Structure formats: C-alpha cells, structure tokens
Amino acid sequence: MSKRNELVLVLDFGCQYKELIAHAVRGLSVYAEIHAGALSADEIKRLNPIGIILSGGPGSVYDSQAPLCDPAVFALGIPVLGICYGMQMICHMLGGEVVAAPVGEFGRITMTPEASEGNASRLLDEVQEPSVVMMSHRDMVARLPEGFRVTAKSPTCIAACEDATRNLYGVQFHPETKHTVHGQEIIRNFLYNICGASGDYRLDDVIDEQIEQIRRQVGSEQVLLALSGGVDSSVCASLLSKAVPDQLTCIFIDHGLMRQHEGDEIEEVFSQRDVRFIRVNAEERFLARLKGVTDPETKRMRIGEEFIRVLEGEARKLGDIPFLAQGTIYSDVIESSCSDESATIKSHHNVGGLPEKLAFTGIVEPLAGLFKNEVRTLGEKLGLPPSLIHRQPFPGPGLAVRIMGEVTAEKLDILRAADAILREELDGIAGTDTASGGAANLSTLKPDQYFVVLTDTCSTGVKGSDRTYDKVVAIRAVTTDDFMTCEYAELPHDVLRRISSRITGEVPAISRVVYDITSKPPATVEWE
Description:
The chain is an alpha/beta fold. It contains 14 helices and 18 strands. The strands form 3 sheets. The chain has a 9-stranded mixed sheet with strand order 2-1-3-4-9-8-7-5-6, with helices on both faces. It has a 5-stranded parallel sheet with strand order 12-11-10-13-14, with helices on both faces. Strands 15, 16, 17 and 18 form a 4-stranded mixed sheet that branches. The protein is globular, with a radius of gyration of 25 Å.
C-alpha cells in the first residue's frame, strides 16, 4: 500500500467472510487490510485508518474466552462498523445485552429499515424498503447500549443499530456477500458517507509498488518461480519478469496430477514466452510420496514438501538461487488460517505445505495481498492473454484432492478421462442455439468452475447384459464472483444427461455419475 492510500482496517475475530469484507472495500476503491481482532488501540492509531470494520466470528461474545477488541477502540473517534458478531461485540462491550436467540437466522432473510422522520441512518441511506439480507447467527442483541437506536429489524431480531454521535454502527447481517441485495450500497455508505473516503486505491498503483518491493527484496540475486500455468503463477511470472527480467527462472514441475494433456499445453505456452522455462517430469516421485495416503491434509502436506524438494534440487543444478517465488494469493493465506481465531479450511500446498527448513533465503509472494478478481485484472494490465487470465482455478495439489482415498496412476487416468469429457461439454456449450433443438444457451449461466471428483465408492450397474460394480464420480459445477462463496450451477437436465451418458459410455471403469448441488458454505468448492 502506498502511504497516500486511505486505509480501512478489518479486525478479524475468526469469520471466514473477513476476506470478502476487505474484497468489498477494495472493490469500492478504498484500501483495506485484515489484522488480528486483538490489535491494540495504540497500534490502530499508528496505522491511522479512516474506518474500522469488526468482522463476524464463530462463537458467542458473552463466552468467557470470546475474542474481543481493545475497549479503547470505541473511544478513538474513528468510525466503526460491526458485522454480525462484530455488532454483538459492540453492544456487549458497551453495556447492552446479547443472548441466545430463540430461533437462529441463516441464509436469506428479509430486513426492514426503521427510519424515523428527519433522522435517517447514513449507513442505510437509500435502503428504505424491506430487502433480502444474508444472516448467519444464533445469538441476538436483546438490549441496546445507551445512546444506540434500532435502524432495521428482521422477523426475529435487531438487524441494524447505531450511535451516530460516536460513529458506531452495527449490522446483524452480512453486507459483504452478494446474497445481501443492498450490501454494496451499505458498505459504500460506511466508506464515503461516514468515513469520508476519497477512493484513492487503484490496481495500477499496485503494479508499480510490487515491482519496487520485489527489487528491494531481491536486489541483484536470482529468483526461481514455481510456475503451474494457472492464473496466479502466470500473473506472478509476468510481474517478476517486469521487475527482474534477467534474474528469473520459471520451473514447471509436472507432478503427474494435472488434467488431460495439461502439462504439454503449459509447456507450449511458456516455452514460447520471453522467460527461462524448465519443465521437470516428476510423476513417479509424487506418486511414491502419496502411496497409501488417504487423508486430504496429509496429501497436501506431502505434495507441498515434495514440491519444494524438487525445486531445491533444480535450484542446485542452476547454481545459487536464493529466492523462491510463488503465486500465493490472499484466499490461499486466509484458508490456510491467518489468525488464531480462524478455523483452517484446508492447507494450500504453497502455504501450509511448506517445510520448516527451506534451502532458499527468502520467499517472494507479490500477489499474497490480492484477491482472485484483482489478480485477473492485474494480468490484463500486464498484457497476459485471456486464455491464461480467465482459466478456471485448479488446486495446487491437482487431481490428488479430487480423488477420494489413495491416489494411484490408474485412478488418475480414470479421472482425467471423465474430467476431459465434462470440460469438453461445458467449454463448447455456451453458443448452442435452443431454436435448433439444442441445449439451453449457457452464455450467461456457464459455471465459473467445474470438474469431476472420483469418489471412493463403487456402485452396481448394468452395461449391456452384464452386471458391473464400478466407480462413482461426482460432477461439481459452481458459479461465483469471489471463489470464497459459491452457488451450485443449475445446469439443464439435457446437458447433465449427455455428460453422464458420455462418461459412463466412454470410461469403462465408471458406472454411475452424480451431481453435487451443495453451495459454499456449508461445503467448499473442492471436495478435499
């Protein structure tokens, strides 16, 4: 962040939506950083934010071990917005009462503003009619602190409150999620109506700042980039090539866990670009490390460690390369747990999977503070082709976390074949014309991510006149704009029917196809 950027602090109390809060703030041209919820008032004053947002949390504010902010935060004179647990915390710490609700509220709930004549809420400005919000709480505010007033209600609780004199605001719902209809307007009101933001955060500045930071960190030393060919590592490569073009070596480790023909495609793209590109075929090494392993976290850790060991070996061949670069982005850091209060969703191989002892002097992660949509925008500004920028996400551990149970060469072949059929069908379907009797036009409904999962279940089937007992695969297709929450894609039945028919007909080892209709939350995008 440049010193000229206005700052909004998001204090983390363990809510998995905290990154969406920061994402929403940045999307409105105001820079946001996530810090531990226990950050002291003195440190907050040093950071000099124009506003503070208290995130949600997993527990009850009245529990003896509940994480709370520094009480002095409320006397700083800096506008504060509490979201869900954050609102309950404000009320609890300032003398109100928070209790277990008779009935919890989860999902889409109608909120009704309570604007009084001549005393409209600046936070809920222009939100004058009942609207849908996303709730996720078991507790509720039963009594407000002195000086606060109710500004909105849900069917069972206080949905929003404020003490405008002290610039303290709270919402029981989650305005940072797309499920809250006027969520963006509410956050914009907080930033611009209450905090007085000017909107000085731009991704163009990030490019210049990161180039400068890379040069400061690396100096004249060499850098080794672990290039997967995905969006994040590709943008990272482009940024590094601008910062230290003659000091960069890109190594693509083909761990044998890629999709069909993907290793060859990545080599074809990057071997033609103006970077030093090396491909390492290491399938046997990775399969040996995964032999007998069924636990997904162990898979990730072993893949991460072997990944680094291969890189170390290649670095030794190339001479003294002290710096390792990675395309780690913000959601990787968040989901690998960045605070004591946060629950670990899954460890990413390039975060939680790093061994404690590395043969590199330092790690260079220029994208670690950016969200996926920001990384894509950065890629466009850096001149990368759309085929790279808009490639759907693929996990670092690859197909290993899309195979339930032990990973074997046979299972990989089965999954690759099924996944290739799914991608072929969905990649080519967007232009189908319904008028000619084809499938529904999916140009606006095409999933943002879609893949096949090989389960560890077999199922009875019939092929020809023979009884079979073969493997079951699941199709996962989701729509999302942030990859931190998602809805399952409502694919037309004729599309699903054709995909199922092709997979069971063309892949002999598969007898049954099921479709995953779970959103995130409560599920994750990946199965493991």
